[in-house]
Automatic annotation (TrEMBL):
Family note: Belongs to the outer membrane factor (OMF) (TC 1.B.17) family.
Domain of life, source organism: Bacteria
Source lineage: Bacteria, Pseudomonadati, Bacteroidota, Cytophagia, Cytophagales
Keyword line: Cell outer membrane, Membrane, Transmembrane, Transmembrane beta strand, Transport
Organism whose genome encodes this protein: Dyadobacter endophyticus
Protein name: Transporter
Amino acid sequence: MAHGQDSLHITVKKLFELAENNNRQLKLDAIRIQDAQAGIDVSKNHRLPDIDMAVTAGYLTDVGVIGMGTMKTGFYEMPHFSNSYVLQASYLLFSGGRVGRDIEISELRGRVAGLNYEKNKMEVKLLLVGYYLDLFRLLGQRDVYKSNIDQASMLLEKIDNRMRAGIVLRSDKIRSELLLEEMKLQLVKVSNRIRIINNAMVEILVLPEGTIIEPDTILPENNVTELALNTLQQVALQNQPELKINQLNTEMAKKRQQQIKAAYLPEASLYATNGLARPYVYDIPAKDIYANNLTVGVRLNYSLSGLYKNKARVDAATKGLQAATQYEQLAQENMRKAVFNAYTLWNEAGDQLSSEAKKLELATENYRRITNAYDQQVALITDITDASNQKLAAELQLTNAQAQRVMRYFELQKVTGQLN
């Protein structure tokens, strides 16, 4: 793959592979997927029983008693050192679906994280393919300028010979020199632009500093299967990660609404407590012995304050669901428009490419005829200058049109969710 110490010949396919393996944004998104998966595991842990253990040690004072019946009022001695060991366990039997909704929301967030990875992956790929095609276009322009500079230099030599023979004027030479200098300046600008884009790609792909990227001389295929526009829009609705994210956001809003409404329901749990404590203080005088108690039962909790506090949360969740639904529909509308625009521009780029190819053919033929006429001294230097400018412009426009056609193809692939 490498040519020379710092050069890297690369195809679009290899460009995408490097992006998936090296790009920092995609690595960050991969970490977010792992974080979302950890969140799912945390939510599932709420279904596991809670087990607690407590150990205490302390000092007890004498117990004071107010006489009732046969008991005398006063203080009674008791063991001053106390300690206890308590083991508690509880298992949630019913929570109105709050735990289940929490797990489902966490799973939906995990799916959103995965879709965000796919969405950002397509954006990174489209960005890189744009740079790649710019590099291809500019390298082509550089070759065009070099070729035209060579032709202009040869023409300048002919003019020098004719000046010495007294056939042409000094103004003809100046005109040719101006054209040559302008092309040299444009060559410098194109070369600098190549360096800038190359550096941007090196940074995005996390390649060694100083790597020179060499795009493939053959552009990738850019033919779209002959599908109707509405079919492409349906493909986008099914594949576009951004639309899927909006659908999941709507589903999450529904789950949140259900989760909040579950606060109106009671919560039931099974519990067990086993405690060992000394001294035994339920007798007077207290006895310095360990007492063991085992309790098993069902606990029922109901929040009465939730009857009036939860209404505002339910209203907010309902508004959130309505907003998510509207946003999903709006995103679908925008996506259909985006597919229409991308498809139209792709067709336009094909027409432009055909037109630019024909214009270059005509400009090349015109330049050849004018050059032959000048050699036969039946054409002026201004005619050659005009023909040269037309040929140069046609060559540059054709290179641009080739890159533009491929770029429009990848834009259509992205907007339909097929840029893999």
